[in-house]
Amino acid sequence: MIEDDDGHARLIERNIRRAGVCNEIIPFISGESALDYLLGADRSGRVAVGRQLLVLLDLNLPDMSGIDILVKLKGNVHTGRCPVIILTTTDDQNDIQRCYDLGANVYVTKPVNYESFSNAIIQLGLALAIMKIPEIG
Q1: Up-side HSE of residue 79: CA atoms within 13 Å toward CB?
Q2: How many other C-beta atoms lie within 10 A of the C-beta of residue 26?
């Protein structure tokens, strides 16, 4: 999960867990730290080989745009098939279209209301619980 807002990160994880998802969730608050983990310091993507990854990605990060991260993940031979779910407050149609054009698998706008946000993440968690994730090759 690449999310710089600690409150949002806790809410996302708590409600995904409520939906029954038990997979490890590794939180990142910056794009650089996430890319170092997902692709390796050399950005080759070889560190991801043999793993199953799903990325929950905020677009508004302090050090780089989530769109830049999406481009790097989807453009890498090793992580290109890795599902990326955009979770962001941005509901601009141009951003939504651009993310799908770049290979995002799902785009979810975070509701402003706490209860609506919680319910949206529970629904996402239910979907995640039945998703099949490809192994990175």
Answers
A1: 26
A2: 11
Neighbours of 9 (CB within 10 A): 20
Q: Is 90 exceeded by the pLDDT of residue 83?
A: yes
CA dist., res. 49 & res. 65, Å (int): 25
Percentage of the residues of the chain whose pLDDT score is greater than 90:
79
Tokens standing for 52? Answer: 């199953």
Q: Three-class SS of residue 83?
A: coil
Distance CA 50, CA 88 (A): 29
CATH 3.40.50.2300 for the 6-130 domain, yes or no: yes
Tokens, residue 87: 């979770």
**Pairing between β-strand 55-57 and β-strand 106-109 as defined by DSSP bridges:** unpaired
Under 8 Å between Cβ of 84 and 73: yes
Q: Give the domain ranges of the chain.
A: 6-130
The 3 state secondary structure assigned to 73-132 is HHCCCCCCCCCEEEEECCCCHHHHHHHHHCCCCEEEECCCCHHHHHHHHHHHHHHHHHCC
pTM surpassing 0.90? Answer: yes
